[in-house]
Amino acid sequence: MTVQRFVTVYSQGLAYAGLVLLAAVLGADLRWLQQVPEIIVLLGACVVLRGLHIPLSKYSYLTQTGLVALAGSLLVGLPAAAIAVAGGTVITDWAWHRKPPWVAWINLGREVIALVAAFGVYTFVLEAADIPPQFHSAIVLPMFAFALTYFLISRALFYLGSWSWASAC
User: How far is it, in rounded angstroms, from Cα 79 to Cα 72?
Assistant: First the structure.
């Protein structure tokens, strides 16, 4: 497989897998239907925090989208946070940063995959340690696992795509 073919397959996989995961989360938990004001606030925060990114190199940058993803999913639930992150990513990348719609869709997929996977680790640690999800000192380990997993997965997906793209150029 050539690098160019890998980049194409990888980006399509991110885009479609992210949409499938988003649809699955929204279908499995319908709380988001009653959380429109919360989603709007999270969406606005995501647009601002993603829009004011920090460039690191030609193919690398840092955003604060993770703050919306992590805090939003803990405060109002995974579905509402996933909608906000997905919408905020597309709006910011397409309208603010003027990236092509396909690139915004790929980034949506990457952010949703990272959030859902990290939330899965969070709930796994909660269940394995038999910790109730209320905020108290015992929840520090699951929250640390959540934040670390989100960071590692989102960066791994980002840099794999960036590295592949840079190699193809």
Answer: 9
CB distance 153 to 118 below 8 Å: yes
The Cα-based distances of 17 to 5, 22, 87, 104 in angstroms read 18, 8, 16, 14
Q: Is the pTM of this model over 0.85?
A: yes
DSSP state of 129: T
**Cβ neighbour number for residue 62 with a 10 Å cutoff:** 12
CB atoms within 10 A of CB 16: 13
CB 113 within 8 A of CB 18: yes
Rounded to the nearest 10 degrees, how much is the dihedral formed by the CA atoms of 140, 142, 148, 151?
A: -110
Q: Which DSSP letter does residue 2 get?
A: -
For 39, residues 6+ apart whose C-beta sits below 8 A from its C-beta are 32, 76, 80, 83, 84
d(CA 58, CA 126): 39
DSSP conformation letters of 47-61 = HHHHHS-EE-SSS-E
Residues 65-101 have pLDDT tens digits of 999 999 999 999 999 999 999 999 999 999 999 999 9
For residues 85, 91, 93, 98, the Cα torsion angle rounded to the nearest 10 degrees is: 180
